[in-house]
Amino acid sequence: MRICLLTEGSYPYVVGGVSSWCQMLIQGLPEHEFLVYSIGAESRDRGKFRYQLPDNMIGIQEEFLDDILGQKSQGMKEDILTGPEKKVLYGLVVGDKPIRIRDLVPIFRDRRRFQSPLDIFMSSDFFQVIQQVYEERYAYLPFTDFFWTLRSMLIPLFFLLQQELPEADVYHSVATGYCGVIGAMAAEIYQKPFLITEHGIYSREREVEIIKSDWAKGDFKSVWIQYFYNLAKLSYQTADHVYTLFEHNAEIERSLGCDPEKIGIVPNGVHLEQFAGIPELQQHDGPFTIGAVVRVVPIKDIVTLLRAFFLVKRDLPDARLFIMGGLEEDPEYYALCRQTVEMLRIQDVTFTGAVRVVEYLPKMDLLMLSSISEGQPLAVLEGQAAHRPFVTTDVGCCRELIYGDSTDTLGPAGAIVAPMDYEAMAAEIVRLGKDFDLRRRMGNIGYERVRRGYTYEHFIESYRKIYEQERRSR
Questions:
Q1: What angle do CA 137, 140, 142 make, to 5 degrees?
Q2: In the predicted model, what is the mean pLDDT of the chain?
Q3: Backbone φ, ψ for residue 112 (5° rounding)
Q4: 8 Å CB contact between 266 and 243
Q5: What angle do CA 438, 376, 300 make, to 5 degrees?
Q6: In angstroms, rounded to a whole number, what is the distance separating the alpha carbons of residues 443 and 194?
Q7: CA 94 vs CA 17, 119, 132, 367: distances in Å
Q8: pLDDT in tens, 39-85
C-alpha cells in the first residue's frame, strides 16, 4: 500500500514532536510505501532533512510558501468564475456553512483557466466576493487593510491547491491546516481514503500564536483566527476518520464541528527497550539536576522555565538546569533566552543543543515541560520510560500522563502547573527537589503508566489495522 503522509512545518526539517512521530510511523510499517508531502515556510530549507529517511519512504514532495513570491498575474480578468463557483469561494472565506472539497476541484485544478493563484485572486469575480464578505462581516475595518489581509491569508492556500498532488492509496495528514485541505483535495481527485491524526489542536494553536503575534494587528487578529478555524472545519468535514492522542482532544474536535463518529484515539508510544538501561532514580551527593528535552522555540516557553529556575536557585542553590534540544530553529528566540539568563544573572544553565537523550536522562533528577501548547509530548513519555518524575504545564495530554485517566489508580508521576506560572512551577520544583523518596516514587509510577498504555508496539499495530481497514473500505 502507498500512503501519502502530509506534514506542515515539521517533518523532515524539524526534530522532535510530530516529526519524531512521523519517523516512527514510517519505520514501524516497512510493509507499506510512504510518500511525504511536506509544506514548509522557506525554500532555503529545501533538502535540509534532519532525519535519515527510511528505506520505505519512496519520495518527498517539498512545497514552500515563499515560492509564492515568484508568482505573476496576467492582470485582472473579467467573468472567469461561474455563479456557483463564486458561492463556493464565498463559503471558503466565510466558513459558516459546509462546503464540499469536490466543488473546489474545478476551480483550482483547471490550469487552462488559471495559471497562478493570482489569476483567481485578482479577478473581478473574486473581488466581488471580497466586497460581499467585507460589507456583510467586516465593514467596521478599513477596506484596503482588509483586502491585503485576505490576500496574505488566501494566496498560500490557492497556491498549494494548484500544485501537483502525488497519487497514493491513502492520504494521511498530521494536521487540519493547509496540509489537511491539500490531503482532502488529493483524496477527492484520486477517490481514496483521507485520514487526519491531530496531535495538538491545530486551530487552537494558531489562535494562541496570532493573539501573541505582532504581525496581526487589532481586529485583524480575529480575521486570521477565523480563517484557520475554517480550514480545520473543512478538513474535519472531508476526512473519513480523525484520530487524536487523548480524550480531551477528541472533546475539543467535537466542539469544533467534527462528527463524533469519525473520531478515534490512538496514543503515542515509545520504545521502552531504548531506556531499559536507565535505572530508577538514585540518591547521590552531587548537584540537583533539572532537565528539559525541548526545542528552543516560543511555543515551548523556555523563558518561563528560566524565570522559574531563577526562583529555584534561592531554595536549592546547587541546582543546575540542562535545556536539551535544537537551537537553530528560531535564533531570535534562542537569543531572547540567553538574554534572560544574562539579565537575571542565572547561574548553572546549559543549552546543550541537540543531544542523544538516552545519554543525558540518567543524569537528571527531575524533568520539566513548560510549553504553552502540546499534544501528547513524546518528551514526557520518554522521560517517564526512564523513571524520571516531571513538572509540566497543564497543556494537551500532560494532565493525563502525570495523574492518569479515569481508569488509572497508579497515582501522580509528578506535578502540573498552569502555563506561564513560573512561581507555581518553581514551588513544585523545590517541593520535589527536597523529597528524594517522593521523586523516586513518582518516577516509578510514570514508568509503569507508560508500560501499560503508551508503547511503540501498540501505536504501530493500531495504525497497521487502521490502514488495512481503509484499504478494504474503498
A1: 105
A2: 92
A3: -70, -35
A4: yes
A5: 85
A6: 39
A7: 32, 21, 10, 44
A8: 999 999 999 999 999 999 999 999 999 888 777 666 677 778 899 99
Burial class (CB in 10 A: 0-12, 13-18, 19+), 204: middle
In DSSP terms, 211 is beta-bridged to: none
Is the omega angle on the peptide bond into residue 331 within 30 degrees of 0, that is, cis?
A: no
With beta carbons less than 8 A apart as the criterion, state whether 141 and 219 touch.
yes
Q: Distance from CA of residue 312 to its chain's centroid?
A: 30
Q: What percent of the chain has pLDDT over 90?
A: 76
Cell of 157: 492556500
Name 157's Cβ contacts closer than 8 Å, sequence gap at least 6: 178, 181, 231
C-alpha grid cell, residue 223? 480575521
User: Quick check: 403 and 412 in contact, CB under 8 A?
Assistant: yes
Helix 422-433 and helix 436-453, axial crossing angle in degrees, nearest 10: 100
d(CA 363, CA 295): 19
- Is the distance from CB of 19 to CB of 12 less than 8 angstroms? yes
**How many other CB atoms are found less than 10 A from the CB of residue 188?**
20
* Grid coordinates of 38: 511536506
Cell of 460: 504501530
Express each pLDDT in 115-154 by its tens digit: 788 888 888 999 999 999 999 999 999 999 999 999 999 9
Whole-number pLDDT of residue 474: 63
CA dist 457 and 455 (Å) reads: 5
With residues binned 3-state (H G I as helix, E B as strand, rest as coil), the percentages for the chain, rounded to 5, are: 50, 15, 35
Residues 150, 447 contacting (CB under 8 angstroms): no
Q: Is the CB of residue 416 less than 8 Å from the CB of residue 393?
A: yes
**351-to-7, 348, 372 alpha-carbon distances in Å:** 28, 10, 20
Q: Give the span between the Cα atoms of 467 and 172, in whole angstroms.
A: 10
What's the rounded Cα separation, in Å, for the pair 81 and 232? 25
Collapse the DSSP code of 393 into the 3-class scheme (helix H, G, I; strand E, B; otherwise coil) and give the result: strand
